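Researcher: Please translate sequence to structure tokens.
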Amino acid sequence: MVCFPVCVQCGTRSNPCRCKVVGPTLGFVAFAVAAVVEWPVGAVVYVFRHMKGRRIMAHPATVVYPRVNRAIPI
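Model: Translation complete:
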């Protein structure tokens, strides 16, 4: 059995039913994939350049998830 997280966001005005399932769920998957790649790289960069490492590690949460979530209105 494979468990897959389902994210629900209610109260949005981007669609008539005011509830989103697909966008937040795909956003979470994109966040997880980006985090697996970017967090180790950010940790290595953080040793030498603190602010650059922090920006790399924050990228999945500040850029990837919001863009995917907003791109899919349902």
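Researcher: Any highlights?
Model: The CA atoms of residues 44 and 53 lie 7 Å apart.
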